[in-house]
Structures are given as structure tokens and as C-alpha cells.
Design a protein that fits this description.
Blueprint (H helix, E strand, L loop, with lengths): L1 E5 L3 E7 L13 E7 L1 H11 L4 E7 L1 H14 L2 E6 L6 E7 L4 E3 L8 H12 L6 E5 L10 H8 L5 E5 L2 H8 L5 E2 L3 H8 L6 H13 L4 E5 L5 E4 L5 E4 L12 H16 L2 H16 L7 H17 L1
Parallel strand pairs: 1-4, 1-8, 2-6, 4-5, 8-9, 9-10, 10-11
Antiparallel strand pairs: 2-3, 6-7, 11-12, 12-13
Helix pairs in contact: 1-8, 4-5, 8-9, 9-10
């Protein structure tokens, strides 16, 4: 079983606003409410790929209840821990010529709440896979992902997709996969990436620090993988109009994981991950199975044409 952890999940209110004007009344052309949070996004895309998962993390208040109800309606099994103070956050995503996001703070998570989550994780099996993704909730320290990895059964595959301050303490725990984007990787390395050689050296450096596999999302330039055998893989992104960058990286994680489980091949995993990332970027919400297949077909044509 795959378990995804979202420490600070959300309800994402995605609005299409033509010509958004700061300081003035703006009217949305459309508004859709989605269950949000990076780990939850991974679960939702895995479902489109025919793979079951369980969503773990924290919820609070009426918005937390609403989040669970929305997940149940989509068929996602969740086992969220309800905390006492605050409410599950609401994030506003405004899509216009430029994308604007306003993320809420989320509820306060206490050490007692965290201990309950660590207990859940310690009860998992070595054969399970754990995906740790996104920001920490208020009240949690930067070593929270490292603590979760230390609580996990020895030998369990753990994927970490998080910003530098959360990822760095977890590297020594040897995550099976990390997935920075290019700016995040540059932050981790402390220098810019200006060439393919920089990318290769940077990925090797992160492996030296503990990462088993390093997957880098490169936006319109596709994706790069340095696998555990020291082999590098690259995939070009499909062409299309970007409608919604939110969740593209999470979709890449889900696609990579699905491809790896289905074919036990890093190249195939990277192909499916790249397709899923593009499929979400070209959609108003997270990708569907149909959109993923369309993007895969386009990528195959692009590769054949060279």
C-alpha cells in the first residue's frame, strides 16, 4: 500500500479571473473547490493511474470535515488525525495572465498530534511506500520529515518532495526519491544550475548526502533523473498551453511512482512522471487518465520525430 502524508492539507479554491486588478473588485469567471495539499494531490493522481493509496496527515474544524468528505466522494481512503486548534486552511488560486496564490496558515499541530502520526507510520509494513510531500503545519519543526522517516519500518521506500529546510534534515535518512524543481535544487546546492553538467554534478552531490534517486522537474524543459545506479535519464516535456501549474510536480511524483511499480524501470517511470506533470499543467485541475494518455501519445510522437 502507498501512504501519502500531507501535514497541512487544504481546500483549494481555484478561480479564473480575466484581467485581475489589484486593489479593485474582481469577478471570477469560474470557481472550483478541490481537496488540496501535495500529498493529497499525489493520492488523487495515483487513483487516475489505477493505484490505491491512503492519505495521512492532519485536519481540523469544519473545513477539515469538508476535506474528508470530498476525498471520500472521490474514492480516496484517508486516515487523517483531527487536531484541536484552528481549521484546515483554504487556499485561493487565481488564474489570469499571471497566476496568483494566497495560502492560508492551517491549524496548530502539537507534539502530541505528531506522536499520533508517528505511531501510524511505525505500524506500516516494510513493503509499503511512504510519500512525504509539502510544507509543515504550524507548530512543527523542520526535522519533522526526518522524524517520520526514523519512525518508518527499516527498509521502507520513502519519497520526499519538500522545500530545503524540510528536505535537508531528511537526506541522511536515505530517501528512496527526492523531487526538487530546478530552483529548489539550486537552493539545496547553494549555486545556480547553468548546464547539463551542473545538473549531473548536483544530482550526484545530493546522492552523496543520502538521496537514492534524484528526480528534477524542469518545467517546459521536461524532467531529469539520476537513478541509484548512477545512470542519468532525461525526458522532454510535451507541448501544450499551460492552464494550471498547481499540482504538476505532485503529478510527476505520482506518475513516476506508478511507472516504477508497474514496470520496475526507471526510464519508464520518468516517462510516465513527465506525462503526468504535463497533463496536469495542461488541465484546469489535476490530470485525468484520459489526459495522461493523450500526453503520453504526444510524447511518443515527439520522440519518434527526434
Amino acid at each position: 500500500m502507498i501512504y501519502t502524508v500531507t501535514l497541512n492539507p487544504a481546500l483549494d479554491d481555484v478561480m479564473q479571473v480575466a484581467h485581475f486588478r489589484k486593489g479593485q473588485l474582481n469577478r471570477a469567471e469560474s470557481s472550483q473547490l478541490f481537496p488540496g495539499g501535495k500529498g493529497i494531490n499525489v493520492s488523487l493522481v495515483l487513483q487516475q493511474l489505477g493505484i490505491r493509496s491512503t492519505a495521512l496527515g492532519f485536519a481540523a474544524g469544519d473545513t477539515g470535515d469538508m476535506l474528508e468528505n470530498m476525498l471520500a466522494k472521490t474514492g480516496i481512503h484517508c486516515d487523517l488525525i483531527h487536531v484541536a486548534e484552528g481549521s484546515t486552511r483554504i487556499n485561493i488560486k487565481i488564474h489570469d495572465d499571471d497566476d496568483t496564490e494566497i495560502n492560508g496558515p492551517g491549524p496548530l499541530v502539537t507534539e502530541s498530534d505528531l506522536q499520533a502520526l508517528l505511531k501510524q507510520i511505525s505500524a506500516l509494513h516494510r513493503q509499503d511506500i511512504l510519500v512525504l510531500s509539502g510544507s509543515a503545519a504550524p507548530g512543527l519543526d523542520d526535522d519533522v520529515y526526518a522524524r517520520m522517516m526514523q519512525a518508518a519500518p527499516q527498509g521502507m521506500k520513502v519519497i520526499v518532495d519538500a522545500e530545503k529546510k524540510l528536505l535537508e534534515p531528511a537526506l541522511s535518512c536515505k530517501p528512496f526519491l527526492i523531487k526538487p524543481n530546478k530552483p529548489e535544487m539550486e537552493s539545496l546546492l547553494g549555486h545556480s544550475i547553468a548546464s547539463r553538467e551542473d545538473l549531473l554534478e548536483g544530482a550526484a552531490s545530493l546522492q552523496d548526502k543520502g538521496a537514492v534517486n534524484v528526480l528534477v522537474s524542469l518545467g517546459k524543459d521536461g524532467a531529469f533523473l539520476m537513478d541509484e545506479n548512477g545512470m542519468s535519464h532525461e525526458r522532454k516535456a510535451a507541448s501544450g498551453k499551460v492552464l494550471n501549474p498547481t499540482g504538476a510536480g505532485d503529478s510527476m511524483v505520482a506518475g513516476f511512482l506508478a511507472g516504477y511499480l508497474q514496470q520496475n524501470d526507471y526510464g519508464a517511470a520518468l516517462t510516465l512522471g513527465t506525462a503526468c506533470g504535463g497533463a496536469t499543467a495542461f488541465s484546469s485541475g489535476l490530470c485525468t487518465a484520459e489526459k495522461i494518455n493523450d500526453v503520453l501519445a504526444q510524447m511518443a510522437v515527439q520522440e519518434a520525430e527526434g
